[in-house]
Amino acid sequence: MKKEKPQRVHFISLGCPKNLIDSEVMAGLLNKSGRQSTQTSENADIVIVNTCGFIDAAKEESLEEILTLAQQKKQNGRDFKIVVAGCLAQRYGKELLAEIPEVDLFIGTGEVGNIVRYVNNLGKTDYRRTSIISKPQFLMNYHHPRIIPAKAAFTYLKISEGCSNRCSYCVIPALRGKARSRMPKDILREAENLAAQGFKEIIITGQDTTAYGKDLKSRPRLSDLLKDMAQIKGIKWIRLLYAHPAHVTEDLLATMADTRKICPYIDLPIQHIDDYILKSMNRGVTAAQIKAVITRAKQIIPDLALRTSLIVGFPGETQNRFAKLLDFVRETKFDHLGVFTYSREEGTAAAKIKSQISKKEKERRRDLIMSEQAVISHSINQCLIGSLQEVLIEEKSDRPDFDFAGRCNRQAPEIDGITYLKGANAKIGSIVKCKVIDADDYDLFGKII
To answer: What pTM, to 2 d.p., does this model score?
Structure first.
């Protein structure tokens, strides 16, 4: 009797690293059930799009991917199944079910752990298209398998899910639920598993990593978790993302300074610096507190690389309030910076504010800050020429004049720059020492020592 071929599943993961981890967990669960992961949608029996629905640009990207697959299904006559998961499905799954008939299933963010059951149902003869949107309560643990690209030198580790901050512009609490922290032992078990798989860099992620443990009875501290993680053999770098300025403690900064494996790098999304705007955003922090945190962080961690993200064009952001933000960017000289134009999201408190700003003006303000940041970043990078840096080699370089591409500990993947290296004797996935020989606005160029 001829054995049936296993179903092939292709994942398209959009949005943030937290969403990527959900995709890896779903892929791991399906693989454990006998399915095979495939790198393209062309030969897949099932395509799962794990979507982002955070802001307009993310929603548009997600819809484009879904509609492209729907078109392929119609034109090619291929009988493959389309599953739409993640934040866009959580937010609009019921409406989209009627609008995009080519999609076989919509599942929300609370259904990540149930993916095998739903895929099993897809194959039943009496299956009917549906959307399954439940209360977002899923919280992964170390028992959940993850399919992570084998060649990756780094990976993300999600220490919590959801958010309880209730910023006035943000839909995350509605899409992901309230903040839920994993137990320290569970996180450390996963970190051990990741180290055993050969990942050199562990990047800590969550909607607000600095709110970690506040919802647990034992009230574990992020600083203690990081100290314990640094004891795990095989892990070389630990990097912290999504640190809310209202929740960064002296204890956390001291731990970062004293623990060699923790990269001297903080992703500190401040969003704005004007007190009126911060209050309107419901950020729970003042301009004075933000400035104090940054000053203290630089004092305690002298070689700190500081990243931030900003929102421009928030309702009520007058020219004077924007000028205050621009001046702050010039004065603070962030190592890395990203700017979002305010996205008016239905169901949020900020959407009801009357003093909305035009798209053209929001884009002008974004471009102005980014042009200023390019000058700042260039100046900082020029000062690094001649310095010695440790670099995690990630891949062969796409530049003919350099052999490898990677990152030093002041660069996070995808959001910061790249370090290009000369030197033939190096291994992908290893950490090497290099001397910086050149730099541009965002990238560094070095020679392996």
So the answer is: 0.92
